[in-house]
Amino acid sequence: MADSDSNKALVARARLGDPAALEALVRRHLRAACAVALAVLGSPADAEDVAQDSFVVAFERLETCRDPERFAGWFLQIVRNRALNAKAQQKLRGQAAGALAEPEPHLDAPDAGRAGLRDRLLKGLSEISATQREVVLLHDLEGWTHGEIARALEISEVMSRQHLFTARRALRTLLGDEAPSAEVRHE
Amino acid sequence: MSDDEKKVDLSALEPFPEAARFEQAVSAITARVLEKKVDLSALEPFPSPARFEQAVGAIAARAMAARRRKRETVSEQLSAWARPALALAAGVALIAWVPSLWSRSPSSTAVSSSASQQSADPAATLMGWAAKDALPTDTTEVLTTLGGSHGGTAR
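Structure tokens for the assembled complex are given below, as produced in the milestone run.
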């Protein structure tokens, strides 16, 4: 999130059709888009598809982004809406049952142990609220600060901390000793 | 019971003399554990940088194409609207022009020009009649020559 150009400048250049600016925006927001879509859908492959489609839609509607400085919030709302639509369509097709409980095999999983851990994490994530999932994924997976999360999700920093605390506690309770920990991050 | 078997009273070293203090410590430890990030790297969507770059390139290309397509669509719409708009404008111009053609028909132009000549120089007209020994065809012509607007009072 800390590239040299501001979102405002990149959006202005992208509106003029600058491919480099467009690519910079994709590079900056792709991982967060995947995290938000994963929080809704619970399937990494579906999440990536939705993230990709969301970029296409967002760039088609770039002129409607009224506050380019807050591009992340505007864009992640598109991602969230499209993920919710995709989930609704899956339900209609009867394919949503157990999307979180029975995640599809991940092609890039290096080994079965890692794939198993991933499945258990997905199962654990399915037990907490969507906002808690978004917060814990953006914070613990993407390394966003509470300030960045608060701005993108349009919640307060206090709420972001609260969601993270609750999500971590729930994940550790659900996963027991399996819940892996990483280094403490001081902000 | 010998002195060796008796418990030594170490209660003075009790780390949590009150239950509340104990609960506070437990909460603090729990909070510190929860401060630790949950390692979610197993959910990493792009395990390798190459995979990430590939995704960025593909999405940027798709998005760029979509933006270009949309721009083309807008220009196509404008050009599609331009033709009927021009046709409509031409129709309106024609409708406005035709009545003016009728009002400028040759006969009416001739009548109006002769009448204007007569009204412009009645003496010359009268002299013409006299020279040719011609008679005005009707009273109206005389009145017109002498000032048509007073014809009503002259009668």
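The helical segments of chain A are 7-15, 19-41, 44-60, 71-92, 112-125, 130-141, 146-153, 157-175. Chain A is about 65% helix and 0% strand. Further analysis is deferred to the final report.
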